[in-house]
Design goal:
CATH architecture: Up-down Bundle
Radius of gyration: 21 Å
Order of helices and strands: HHHHHHHHHHHHHHHH
CATH superfamily: MFS general substrate transporter like domains
CATH topology: Growth Hormone, Chain: A
Number of helices: 16
Structural class: mainly alpha
Distance between the termini: 20 Å
Number of domains: 1
Oligomer: single chain
Largest sheet: none
């Protein structure tokens, strides 16, 4: 029987959640939405932000050369501290780490909006990434242990992660409203730059989390072991012992490939759109509105992918079979979208990024469902953080830097067109490597969580 103290499921046949469990799901959903809001604001604002801070044209090579750095360096910082955060999640508890991570990236989101140089902009984006990387690992471990019933756990993690795409839609909508009405907002540092307002707005979703999350229960599994003195100390060395080595290596490689497709290709689309024939002749505000509109297609596609995965996660038993539903179509869709975007025009870019986002973003939710099932309690945060932070953040986001460095050597008459071809090359390579690695992905030993 579930209680508000342990927050466990009532039975295998339970069809409803307790009020406290609904509150936990709501807070987790807001948390995942805020994660995406804080991260996905960058593709929208990086071009105008760097243009303002550098004093150059938005589509210049000077901006392009900085974009990869601004996307990759924060990811490396997030990966390093996220790795430490996963270890602390196993050592100190899930809830405590969650609270401090929210405070960090809520504050840094506002501070980035007041940056006066590229250096400070980069620093505050690093802080935001650190908070997000730590929060994701702690939140997934926390949810998995609060819902021990296998099917209910799959649904809860799948559906709450779907709100990550809601966060992307929120920031896309916020950017559209802000660029349309930027002159009516109070001046920031003497100006009315839309990118500053958009960054500052990232603190809004954090407010309810800061208020509610400190009062929610700790993971009952972790807490019981801690009180009984049976909780083993987490160890990075242990995730490379024969029992876990294959799981650790394969999940790290595959998460790196998923993030490489996202950062090396999908997140470059807002900088490709201004180079399309229909967009070049538009006024600045209209261009930014069009960029926001195309980004919304990607976010709706990502949301559709997460919803489909959430619906299928508790139905399809084989994890590789579930992954292939998204991985194989993405292997075809991504190169078609980016290679043909310069000639296909705005409509092609919109619908291409919709379906590519559907196939790619769903894979992020897949890992949130998969990883808690392959590591025991004392290694759950550590193992998840290694795959997500070393693989996803530190290795995968390197693709953003590779893409921008390839731009000068690509064919095309403008930087956005060259960028489309570079993104196609990098994203397709990431998909091929990820698909090849999937043949070694271990199936979880059982539906329940390992002890």
């Amino acid at each position: 029987m579930a209680t508000t103290r342990t927050v466990t499921m009532r039975s295998e046949t339970a069809v409803s959640l307790t009020p406290l469990q609904w509150l936990i799901c709501a807070v987790a959903a807001i948390g995942f939405a805020f994660d995406s809001y804080a991260l996905l604001v960058l593709p929208l604002v990086v071009r105008p932000a760097l243009a303002d801070l550098l004093g150059v044209a938005p589509n210049s090579l000077a901006v392009n050369s900085w974009v990869g750095t601004v996307q990759y360096v924060p990811a490396v910082c997030g990966g390093i501290f996220g790795l430490l955060g996963g270890y602390l999640t196993d050592l100190l508890g899930r809830r405590r780490v969650l609270v401090w991570s929210i405070l960090l990236y809520g504050f840094s989101a506002v501070a980035a909006g007041y940056a006066t140089s590229v250096g400070w902009f980069l620093f505050w984006r690093c802080c935001t990434f650190v908070g997000v990387c730590v929060e994701f690992v702690a939140a997934v471990a926390w949810l998995a242990e609060l819902f021990p019933d296998a099917k209910q756990r799959e649904r809860v993690i799948g559906w709450t992660q779907a709100f990550g795409s809601i966060g992307g839609l929120m920031v896309t909508g916020a950017y559209y409203v802000i660029v349309t009405n930027e002159d009516v907002f109070p001046a920031v540092l003497g100006g009315h730059a839309a990118w500053r307002y958009t960054l500052i707005s990232g603190v809004i979703p954090a407010i309810p989390l800061m208020i509610i999350r400190p009062f929610l229960p700790e993971s009952p599994v972790w807490q019981a072991k801690k009180r009984a003195g049976t909780l083993r100390r987490p160890s990075f060395a242990e995730i490379f012992t024969p029992r876990f080595r294959r799981t650790t290596i394969v999940t790290t490689v595959m998460m790196a490939c998923a993030y490489a497709a996202a950062f090396g290709a999908i997140q470059q689309m807002p900088r490709i759109v201004p180079g399309l024939a229909e967009v070049q002749a538009l006024a600045r505000t209209a261009q930014e509105q069009t960029i926001s509109g195309v980004q919304s297609f990607q976010e709706f596609g990502g949301l559709a992918g997460r919803i489909i995965l959430a619906a299928l996660a508790a139905v399809i038993i084989g994890r590789r079979r579930l992954l292939y539903i998204f991985q194989i179509p993405g292997l075809v869709l991504l190169p078609l979208t980016f290679f043909l975007a310069p000639s296909g025009g705005l409509a092609w870019a919109q619908w291409g990024i919709f379906f590519t986002g559907m196939a790619t973003i769903a894979q992020f939710s897949f890992w949130g469902n998969y990883l808690p099932r392959v590591y025991p309690t004392h290694l759950r945060g550590t193992g998840e953080s290694f795959a997500a932070n070393v693989g996803g953040r530190m290795l995968g986001t390197l693709a953003a830097l590779v893409t921008t460095q390839l731009v000068p050597s690509m064919p095309g008459a403008s930087v956005p067109i060259k960028l489309a071809y570079a993104a196609a090359l990098v994203g397709t390579t990431a998909y091929i490597i990820g698909f090849a690695a999937s043949f070694w992905l271990p199936e979880p030993e059982k539906e329940g969580l390992p002890d």
